[in-house]
Write a structure and sequence with these properties.
The chain is mostly helical. The protein has helices spanning about 1-20, 25-45, 60-80, 80-95, 95-105, 110-125, 130-135, 140-165, 180-200, 210-235, 250, 255-270. It is about 75% helix and about 0% strand. It is globular and about 55 Å long.
Amino acid sequence: MLRQRVAVAIVGIPVTIGLTLLGGPLFTIAAGFVFAVAALEYYAVTDPASTAGSRRLFDPRLLGLIGAAGVALLVAAADNGFDWWTRALALIVVLPFLPLILWGDPQTGHRDWLWVIGGLMYVGFLGSHLVLLRDADNGRDWVLLALFATFATDTAAYFIGRAVGRTKITPSISPGKTLEGSLGGFAAGLGTVLILNWALDAGAGAEIIPLAFLLPAVAEFGDLAESLIKRGAGVKDASQVVPGHGGLLDRLDSLLFTIPLVYYYLTWIIL
């Protein structure tokens, strides 16, 4: 598994940096594709009408396809500005009612609407902040800071937890998470935020210090949030799309929380 993780990092990190530096339509298209696949994973794992053995990533119900398409629409709309993004958000909240009214079962309609909206908000609404952040002032550097500080938090927590972790923090949700690993991840994330702010010349002075404390804590919270979803669904990984890592959603779980944090911290505190 470690070799697979390293191989994915060798390929994924340069691609991620290249797309972030490039920005523009290609960045948005790539983000839309990644988040749409992550949404398919979410819908496959959480489908209330399926059992664990019958869930298939690329054969979802119509509502799952509508949800994944709505996620891609949110990402694309974000690239056209805040107004288009909010219009798309209003549309995707309403649109899932259409098939439920035409063909749905009134006994399960409300449940299924909430299921679709859950994926749209969790993956689409939170994830589309990546494009909003990239399009902000000096957004390229802030995306890199958010991505790699989050990766540093996750990676350090994983390896330190495996090496010296003893104290379980949420055994019923994520048995592998330990206090030692969490503290190591927090320290790594904090240091990475400070280093990248200096190395990238992101433009923040002393204002970066609260973010340096917030980001790793929020990253670990996001990781546990996805663990809660998977534990409730009775699965270990969202899929097997990413060798050694599970699914795309398993790699994005922390970012779904840290990217909005960095975006709003940038726009409300720093700019």
